[in-house]
Amino acid sequence: MTDTPVIGVLALQGDVREHLTALASAGAVARPVRRPDELVAVDGLVVPGGESTTMSKLAVLFGMLEPLRERVAAGMPVYGTCAGLILLADKILDPRSGQETVGGIDMIVRRNAFGRQNESFEAAVDVDGVPGGPVEGVFIRAPWVESVGARVEVLATHGGHIVGVRQGNALATSFHPELTGDHRVHALFTDMVRAVA
After folding, report:
1. Could you give phi then psi for residue 138, rounded to 5 degrees?
2. Residue among 51, 50, 18, 13 nearest 34 (CA)
3. CA dist 130 to 118, 127, 182, Å?
């Protein structure tokens, strides 16, 4: 166990810089990850928001999809936000043509479930395991979780829909906590990584 785990942010697309800042504030050594050799050097990984279809295709293009699947399957802690939640799902209800996932969480997700870009919103969300009251969640073309398997713990809901889950070392939220300056969800993830690093 190490007090300062090395946590990567998958830097193919999306809000990488904000996650790096949030992880550093949570006490991790944070670095971007674009290639398989960089993935090997981290204790845990954040899969950021962005466009899930594009991220899936870029992961294939950069030779990252299979290494990601292998590390997640082997128990590397991983946290996905928004598009990252979609990539960690075992199944997508309405996948785009050619869209693949890393998997790791036994859930079925619906893309863009909360509406399009102009329907983005912020909401206070209670997240189990995060002390200190609700987290301010930013929902941007956000997915929600339609259903989960028996081993998945539901951590948060909004409007009757599942928006935060955990299965073992895998954590995922529909919203973007990295955009708010509140780094408590990243602190939860950093603690998850510390426990196995």
Report:
1. -100, 120
2. 13
3. 29, 6, 11
H helix intervals, the chain: 16-25, 36-40, 52-61, 65-73, 83-88, 184-196
Distance CA 176, CA 136 (A): 9
Stated pTM of the model: 0.96
Instruction: Bin 181: left if φ > 0, else alpha if -120 < ψ < 50, else beta.
Output: left
Phi then psi dihedrals of residue 99, to 5 deg: -75, 130
As a whole number of angstroms, the distance between CA 76 and CA 139 comes to 26
Residues 125-140 pLDDT 10s:
999 999 999 999 999 9
* CA distances to 22, 33, 69, 71, 142 from 53, in Å: 25, 19, 16, 21, 14
Q: Which residues are catalytic?
A: 82, 176, 178
Cβ atoms within 10 A of the Cβ of 149, count? Answer: 11
